[in-house]
Design goal:
single chain; 299 residues; alpha/beta; Arc Repressor Mutant, subunit A; D-Maltodextrin-Binding Protein, domain 2; 3 domains; two-stranded antiparallel sheet; elongated
């Protein structure tokens, strides 16, 4: 099977159009179209549904994309090694994280040490991060969701804690600590399903038998903050993400375990790639992994 034809398919599948794919691949659109048609004709299959200038993958095309993604990820890894990326003088690292707060200091340090590197950062919930790494769409993931997937290499890097926050005019604004039972019948603003913030907090509510009055679900941390400021309810956030805001007040829940470990993950088959390894080494915590795990699970 011709690698050139597979590459043409891969470019179009990723770009979603022949025009964008030709631009990204540095080839003419007629050449790219001819290569994709040749691949389809050689096997008597249809890989794309054509919609004018746009294309979508057929089910067979989706399956083939999963294979070509692994294939060309391995090719990129080999190219990086052979091109001298071992010295980290150049290269591009793709990171997916559930919070910029947790990963940005590490990237800043890596950039100071190796000024020729470039980065891209995608923010999503914890489940999104894991899927992006598994799908070869990110080299490194930073997530609060623990995983035992054998395809992933994972190291704990820090401990954080969930806290409540309320507007400065809220009756609880003068209190630094409350018991979880005060949340019975309260209005809460919380992240969408798939967020570790939501998973952990809902688990603690269930353990205590607490039923809030309403749950306002939003997609981002910024939206949680805006909803709380607008008076929709009490927000939940990682303590490290709240920052200094004169319009908001943090409130700690004293009688529930809201500690959460943060992990750095990568695919097991890519952990020795120099760029990936450099960030993994930088992220190793001062405390032993066993200490972090023990704190995260402590009652």
């Amino acid at each position: 099977m011709s690698p050139t034809l597979l590459r043409a398919f891969h470019l179009v599948a990723q770009a979603g159009s022949f025009t964008r794919a030709a631009r990204a691949g540095g080839v003419s659109q007629p050449t790219l179209s001819a290569q994709v048609r040749a691949l389809e004709a050689a096997h008597g299959v249809s890989l794309f549904n054509r919609h004018g200038r746009k294309v979508t993958l057929t089910p067979l095309g989706q399956n083939l994309l999963a294979i070509t993604t692994r294939l060309f990820a391995a090719e990129d890894e080999a190219s990086a090694l052979l091109a001298g990326a071992r010295t980290l003088t150049r290269g591009h690292l793709r990171i997916a994280a559930d919070s910029a707060t947790h990963v940005m200091p590490l990237l800043a340090t890596l950039r100071q040490r190796h000024g020729g590197l470039t980065f891209s950062l995608r923010i999503g919930n914890s489940s999104d991060v894991i899927e992006l790494v598994l799908g070869y769409e990110a080299d490194i993931g930073v997530t609060a969701k623990p995983t035992s997937d054998p395809r992933l290499h994972s190291i704990p890097i820090r401990i954080d804690r969930l806290v409540l926050f309320v507007p400065a005019a809220h009756p609880w604004a003068g209190q630094r600590r409350i018991g979880i039972r005060l949340l019975q019948g309260a209005d809460l603003v919380i992240r969408e399903r798939g967020s570790i913030t939501r998973e952990v907090f809902e688990a603690r509510l269930a353990e205590a038998g607490i039923r809030p009055r309403t749950l306002v679900e939003v997609q981002t941390r910024e939206a949680v903050r805006e909803a709380v400021v607008a008076g929709f309810g009490i927000g939940i956030v990682f303590a490290s993400e709240l920052g200094e805001d004169p319009t908001l007040r943090p409130v700690e829940v004293t009688d529930a375990d809201l500690t959460v470990a943060e992990y750095m993950i990568c695919r097991e088959d890519r952990r020795r790639l120099p760029l990936v390894r450099s960030l993994l080494d930088l992220a190793q915590p001062a405390a032993p992994s066993s200490t972090i795990a023990a704190k995260a699970s402590a009652p």
